Amino acid sequence: MTVSFENFPIYKKAISFTVKIFKILNHENLHKEFSLKDQLKRATLSISNNIAEGSEYGSNKQFIRFLWIAKGSCAEVRSMLFVLHSLEKIDSEIFNTLNDECLEITKEIYHFIKYLEKSTLDIK
């Protein structure tokens, strides 16, 4: 049986998080932050894209490799959120909400990795 990446709860959370990030990047305070906005968009998209891409390889070993990359992208996103907050481009409420959500995604990716490492059945 094939499991589609669209059905993974962690993928759905990553997409929801991406939408939130894209919405805050339209804020007036970030109007001139072209390179930072672009990098944050790419890092955020990398989370869901790596979950999707890794799931299509058909083996847990490959999927796990892509999940580690997605987890790394979460750290990159959080780092950029810290920069935006330090520059006072986003307020504390937005920062805390997005940072907490990204931390939750990071934890869920980690738990998914651990689950796949113990599983004897490949995703496909």
Automatic annotation (TrEMBL):
Alphabetical list of SUPFAM superfamilies matching this protein: IVS-encoded protein-like (SSF158446)
Looking up InterPro entries in the UniProt record yields: 23S_rRNA-intervening_sequence, 23S_rRNA_IVS_sf
Instruction: Give the domain of life.
Output: Bacteria
A Pfam family cross-referenced in the UniProt record is 23S_rRNA_IVP
Q: What is this protein called?
A: Four helix bundle protein
- Which organism is the protein's source? Chryseobacterium aquaticum
